Amino acid sequence: MDPLAKRRLSDITFVIDKDLNVKSGNRSFLRLIHKTNFNVNLSYIFEDSDIKNFKFFLANFDDSFPTRSFLASIKPFENYISCIFTITRAGEYFNVIIEELSYSRQLLDRALMESRELTALMQNFDSYYFLFDGKKYTLKNTKDLNTIFDGPQEDFKIYITNTFKINISNEDTQAQLNAMFENIENFNAGKYYTLLQIDKKILTIHTLKTSTRHSSLIVASINLHKENEPVMNTYSESRDGLTGLYNKKAITELAIKKINEEKSPCSLIILDADKFKECNDSYGHIFGDRVLVSIANCINDAIKGRGIAGRIGGDEFLILLDVNNEDDIHQIARNIRTGIQWSITNVDPESVVTCSMGIAKFPVNAQNYEDLFELADKSLYIAKYRGRNTYILYSPELHDKILIENKQIDDRVTSGKFFFDCVNSELEILNKIQKLDSSKKEQVYEILNLMISYLQISKITIYDKDFKLLYLAGIDEVNSREDYVRYTQNYFKFFNEYNFLHLDNTNVLNSIDGERYDLYRSTNISSTIEVLTKNKNCENLLICYDLYKPARTFKKDKITFALLVARKLSEIL
């Protein structure tokens, strides 16, 4: 791998003009763009939508702030990297520093606050949009941002009805218009409104809640349909009231039509919010609703007109992509996953909202909607098994074996043999612990290797009160934590009140602790259970159960037994 891909991008600097022509830069910049000179235009490493956004941003650079930030994705390697461009004006040119999102939450927040409105306008809006700042409405167009109207709601409602020829004699249109203004006044956004015009064309308004440096705003796009597009009788019949996505009935019918009738190549994604029930239980249903709206917004941002999406259950979504190329599918799925993790994050890894996805392609993997949905659902199951916060693009060569093994486990569970074997393994380990002579290291290693086999993990490490290595058993001899634990403050900040940390997928730390995430990534640790316990002398012992890639979800009974063994071992060692 290119060494540049492994490290932070914070030392990459360059100078450009408003058309993205490079004037100068440092050596790291040349390595980033794979060039030997500066005679280049940067457009080729941006997504198409970001090129337009960035040029607009530079052309309208606000000199009242000496430094501005812009959020965009670049593709210097095989995959896109989300970056923050920190920009200062130098005459007719711009000095730019690139910083990677995953290493600076503070910079991410700053960039979102400064450029979120602009990004939303350029990516999602048609030709008109309006703002509500809590007091008045401002109507603008997206071409030159000229103000067309500025005033209170009463006047704006009349103006927008007359200007866009909205048919208020239609009961459904009138009801939606009233609901829209009521929701906007209450700063309730993330919704779609479909209105009928007098000439029987359709007008759609999409509302977003956003922020600038100075205030909170509702920003709404006005999308004019050039032709009378077929829609269901009422908005409520086709859309989910909370998220604005299609509801289950509508998205299912559209998917069946596309796959079974039109036979159009496509990809189907089933997305499930990880541990959503726990989120609802811990933070309440109001927060849970906000999570679902944020997930829907992340899906819309990622698919960007390349598909449609619907909510098919409480925390389950169906996405139908028009793309069938695996690189495009990976990019979209990755953007959805990282977008959700970054937009709904917290300081506690147990409360970070993430998602798992199962993906299947038509007609490559199945010949009809029903079979395609079943394969995507099975792939989702594998993603959950792999530790959550990931996605699985179905491949029969890779995943049929896993599905067969899972079926065999289910059969063993049904017959009772699975539980019988687990009990026998647990009894064998506990009996050996009871007879353990701590002076004989080979006995300790025998127990650790039995635990590795039982938990199906990669290795176990045990550290003493000074966090120096006592025992290491497993597939390698890499002492991955000693220096980090001993010289890092607050290593145990993520441990719960019972003094253990359980991560089914360590990439959940990417959005809350980049340094800790780098530790796990550099040592290939994808899932872990870490237990801080006391030995017979009341001194701390740290016992770590680690699984290398791919990640896997630890079953509750396995976690319980791992904690029990850690406690029993600490009493003897």
From TrEMBL:
Family matches, as InterPro entries: Diguanylate_Cyclase, GGDEF_dom, Nucleotide_cyclase, Rev_trsase/Diguanyl_cyclase
Entry GO CC: plasma membrane
Known catalytic reactions: 2 GTP = 3',3'-c-di-GMP + 2 diphosphate
Enzyme class name: transferase
PROSITE patterns, A to Z: GGDEF
Extent of the signal sequence: none
Protein name: diguanylate cyclase
